Amino acid sequence: MNREAISLITHYYEVFNAGDREALLCLLTEDVRHDINQGASEVGREVFRAFLQRMDRCYREQVEDLQVFGNQDGTRGAAEFFINGEYLNTDDGLPPATGQKYCLRVGAFFELRAGQVSRVTNYYNLEEWLRLIGA
After folding, report:
1. How far, in Å, CA of 118 to CA of 74, rounded?
2. How far apart, in Å, are the Cα atoms of 85 and each of 81, 99, 101, 121?
3. How far apart are CA 116 and CA 25, in angstroms?
């Protein structure tokens, strides 16, 4: 495993948990590709910023029990964790938010380039999340 890849991905989640969105954005390449769970792919750091703003408006989340993996050459990595969250405000196309709490297993896959994240792909069971929030 590549120590730099594991360190970068671990730091990504540390700043996520700290709520430091600017530090998180600095870890991304300008042309970062974000594959949203059961959704579209979005490209660009500023598009990712808008995604984070929507997430912060609708959810309060913390990554727990983080396990990080990296390939030998440091170009790819993965993480498995639980997202412990609260659904604060209704997100477009989803059931009404009433402060429901949830804890959900998540998998994430990364491409890394020149010490930054160039792709992040997140996967979780949407049906399980809907069940957890009582939808």
Report:
1. 12
2. 13, 9, 6, 19
3. 10
Q: Are strands 100-113 and 76-87 parallel, antiparallel or unpaired?
A: antiparallel
Q: Which domain holds residue 68?
A: 3-132
What count of other Cβ atoms lies within 10 Å of the Cβ of residue 63? 18
Task: Give dist(CA 124, CA 112) in Å, integer.
Answer: 21
What's CA 122's distance to the chain center, in Å?
Answer: 6
Any idea what the CATH number is for the domain that residue 123 is in? 3.10.450.50
For residues 57 and 63, the answer to whether their CB atoms sit within 8 Å is no
Element (H, E) at 16: helix 3-18
The residue written with tokens 């703003």 in the block is: 53
Q: Give me Rg for the CA atoms of the chain.
A: 15
Three-state SS at 71: coil
pLDDT along the chain (135 residues), means of 10: 91 98 98 93 97 97 97 96 98 95 98 97 96 91
How buried is residue 134: exposed, middle or buried, by Cβ count under 10 Å (0-12/13-18/19+)?
exposed
Count of domains observed in the chain? 1
pTM of structure = 0.94
